[in-house]
Amino acid sequence: MEHHLVLQDISFSYRTGKVFFSKKKKSVLDRISFNVRKGETLGIIGRNGAGKSTLLRLLSDIITPDEASIIRNCKSINLLSIELGFSEQLSGIQNIVLSGLFNGFSKKEIIKKTDAIIEMSGIGDAVHNTLITYSSGMRARLGFSIAYHLEPDILLIDEILGVGDIDFQLKSEQLIKEKMNSDQTVVLVTHDPNLVRDVSDRVIWIEHGRVIKQDNSHKVVDSYLEYMLKDPVQITK
Fold it and tell me: pTM above the 0.85 mark?
């Protein structure tokens, strides 16, 4: 079986203190190992600060691990996150084109996809406004629509399905389910245990930067919820 991503003993830490050459480091991820199969939807769950978003940034090659390396058997990876990938000083339409160029499309190719992206996003004429005027929900809809139509080999989703109105959430969840039936490889980070159980083939539970459990979605989510119910304060985002 072909693996799109292979991680073996991946760790990540960052320097603490006020100076760049500080020797003090804080560990975020500690010896993470797993594979992502081609066409698989992999869910990642865990509390705030567990290292989930950092892991996605490692997978997308935005940051690099302390040791070892991540094997990527693919041509394109797209990280879909509210915090990344957009220029606030550009309009929605300009960001669509820019995202396409970054993902290897020609300007002509991405322009052909523009109408479909705008229609799916539902932002209408606001696509001509600068992103600094957008709400988080509008950014989420535009970002999801761009990623959906660019069709990268691997789509990384960081919490974005929980943003926006209920119509967008239901629509995006349905589209992810459709992706599961295609060759699209998806890695999904979310705080919604029901969503990750419904759409994922497998789930990885991360706690304090370490993998606690990885198995089919129902087994991992059930174990995670049982653990969290022992400490109700931690269930909230």
Answer: no
